[in-house]
Specification:
39% of the residues lie in helices and 21% in strands. It is α/β, with parallel strands linked by helices and 338 residues long. The chain is globular.
């Protein structure tokens, strides 16, 4: 029997080093309304194929296509997931899952694909600006690492483009950031933006401020940092907790926000993001109170002779945690119907 493409199903995944979100989609329902979805602990499975087989067995559904956004670069239809031993290949996926076609895209490309279908309730507006309806859009996602992507209007629709811009050289914009750069340069040699503008970067900023004597480390914080594996969460929570007196953590978050604003401005200038700048990933929604303060916009817009150009660029925080999943679904449904 020949099935109409509208009846066919698409397996979609947002594959991360910690967790994996899977869902099944159809053209009729679109990229925001899955038939079903579930979240799994990635490390409990030896491969994406094993996880996908278990999920499909649970659902009892038969899929014809698959599309996965993965936390790592996709080169020649192959990907290695950061913090996982999985080796993923499109051809092997299609054969193992018995689907007509399987596609891999970078996770930031997934988020970028979600941007054109975001709704008002999916974002928080930091700067309304003036939106160019066909202008380029920039996406920065500080999470475990720093992901970057952008979208360009091709005459008919927005087309997402991946990037590894998070690994570009960190450029200090203040004397304290210059000292931070030197501190990290002496330890790592190359200092990328990801070293200071990510979940991994926040402890780096904190240790620099502590070791340089900016402020003493409170004993209660010393105990918490020694007993908790997630140093980033401890530092961010302490910085945002108004009942705690932790000057070190508050300054750490201030420096982080300042660097994030500067790099958002860098990417916005490079792609002329008159369509808007979107902050995604796990960190921005968690530190929204800090992003609302003036430090972010000051460094975002502080671009010398280009300040007048960039001040009109809109900036948003993507609040919907499923954006990467329905971005991958949007990509998958598009090639499925091509």
């Amino acid at each position: 029997m020949i099935h109409n493409r509208q009846d066919q199903m698409l397996l979609v995944g947002d594959i991360g080093g910690t967790k994996t979100n899977l869902g099944v989609y159809t053209p009729q329902r679109g990229p925001r309304d899955p038939v079903c979805e579930a979240t799994f602990s990635s490390a409990q499975y030896e491969s994406l194929e094993a996880l996908a087989h278990e999920y499909l067995a649970q659902t009892g559904l038969s899929v014809e296509y698959a599309a996965f956004g993965v936390a790592g670069p996709v080169v020649q239809s192959r990907a290695t997931i950061t913090n996982l031993s999985w080796k993923i290949d499109e051809e092997h996926l299609a054969e193992t899952l018995n689907v007509r076609c399987a596609k891999l895209i970078n996770d930031l490309e997934s988020i970028a694909n979600a941007v054109p279908i975001l709704k008002e309730e999916d974002v928080f507006t930091l700067n309304a600006g003036i939106v160019d309806p066909q202008g380029a859009k920039a996406v920065l996602a500080p999470g475990t690492g720093l992901g970057e992507a952008f979208l360009i209007w091709n005459g008919q629709y927005y087309q997402a483009q991946p990037s590894e811009g998070g690994h570009a050289d960190f450029a200090p914009t203040s004397s304290i950031q210059a000292e931070l750069w030197r501190y990290l340069y002496e330890r790592y040699g190359h200092v990328s933006f990801e070293r200071v503008c990510s979940g991994r970067g926040i402890p780096n900023i904190y240790k620099f401020l502590r070791d340089s004597g900016y402020a003493p480390e409170p004993p209660w914080l010393t105990d918490k940092l020694s007993s908790d594996k997630d140093l980033t969460a401890v530092i961010m929570n302490a910085a945002l907790d108004e009942t705690q007196d932790c000057e070190l953590c508050r300054k750490t978050l201030d420096v982080f926000v300042s660097i994030l604003g500067a790099e958002a401005g860098n990417l916005a200038l490079k792609v002329m993001a008159t369509g808007g700048v979107y902050l995604a990933g796990g960190i921005p929604p968690r530190i929204l109170p800090a992003l609302k303060k003036s430090g972010l916009m000051e460094t975002f817009q502080g671009k010398g002779r280009m300040s007048d150009v960039i001040q009109n660029m809109p900036m948003y925080v993507i609040m919907n945690p499923k954006a990467a999943l329905f971005g991958a679904a949007s990509f998958g449904l598009a090639f499925m119907q091509a």
